[in-house]
Amino acid sequence: MSIDLRSDTVTKPTSEMLRVMMNAEVGDDVFGEDPTVNALEDKVAECFGMEAGLFVPSGTMGNQLCINVLTRPGDEVMIEEKGHIFNYEGSAAAIFSSVQLHTVKGQRGKLSADLLRDRPRGQFDWEPRTRVISLENSTNKGGGACYTRKELNALRKFADEHDLRIHLDGARLWNAVIATGIDPAFFGRVADTINVCFSKGLGAPVGSMILSSKEHIRRARRFRKAMGGGMRQVGILAAAANYAMDHHWSKLEEDHRRAKELASTINTCGGLSIDPDSVETNIVIFDLLEEKAETALQKLGQHGVQMVPFGPQTVRATLHHQVTDDDVANVQQVLKQLFD
């Protein structure tokens, strides 16, 4: 038995996805001549209510392109302290855009308008100028938490009042749409830039896309080239992303159901701790009461179950479409055996 719950990035292309990739119509995307990627960019932009899209190799590149087009050197980006851009992108905002990140402690990776009161800076010459609010939806280190429509509307109003821009790191925005029932186009009305990933819950092998105005995308395309992201016959990858969007998006609801079932079992284990009501999407974060995370992960690995450490005594499990009900039942059995 080998059940990989380390991340929703570990999925492999299905046979049908591979067939679609092999048959994709392609061209040179640097010349803007790949019909498959052009069609996907138009499709995703329309879905999320944006003017244009740009296919990029990774979510990190997507986030950094968005920060670059929204800021000038010396600016500041406000972000929740658990945010992916702050924790997992190698100081890229400083390297590529010469901006600093101003972290704010929120709740489960989420910011709110109330938390940001009196935070924007730039009134004095010695202060950095706050330019952008960066949001993540759903949150990774926050355990898959999702913003509500009310929360996002309040943040948009706050941004407008302070002449700020909003970037939405939507690596798992697909999950948030399923979990909340919010129309995808709503996010395009809230954010100035959006980054969505195809290689997480949707199960494509590679690729993300940024969404914004035509002018922002024009500027991002130039910077993408400078970063080494100008791909050629990228329609092969765009075909996989398109297939994932059409055939795997609806499966996220099952991932969320299985995650909640797993959390329910964890809640019954005497050596583990979790608030099962905190599980909204496909991410399950729980604490160990009696041992270190690395020790627990070694034990799980010996039983064919893979998860990742998320703190000295904290573990993350992430569900995806290649984890079945039988797999979850086996994991539940292992957890009860080891930690009850």
Mean pLDDT, to the nearest integer, reads 97
Q: Residue share in helices?
A: 40-55%
**Main pleated-sheet profile:** 7 strands, mixed
Beta-strand fraction estimate: 15-25%
Through-space gap between termini = 21 Å
Order of helices and strands: EHHEHEHHEEHEHHEEHHHEEHEEEH
Trace the largest sheet across and list its strands.
2-8-7-6-5-3-4
* Unreliable residue stretches: none
Structural class: alpha/beta
Strand tally: 13
Rg over C-alpha atoms, rounded to the nearest angstrom = 20 Å
Number of helices in the DSSP assignment: 13
Net shape: globular
TL;DR of this structure?
The protein is α/β, with parallel strands linked by helices and 340 residues long.
Description:
This protein has helices at 15-22, 35-47, 59-70, 84-87, 92-97, 149-161, 173-180, 184-190, 214-226, 235-247, 252-268, 293-302, 325-339; strands spanning 3-4, 52-56, 75-80, 100-104, 129-136, 165-170, 193-197, 208-212, 272-273, 283-288, 305-306, 308-311, 314-318. It is globular. The mean pLDDT is 97. The chain is of the alpha/beta class and 340 residues long. It is built from 13 helices and 13 strands. Helix 2 (35-47) packs parallel to helix 10 (235-247), helix 3 crosses helix 9 (214-226) and helix 11 packs parallel to helix 13.
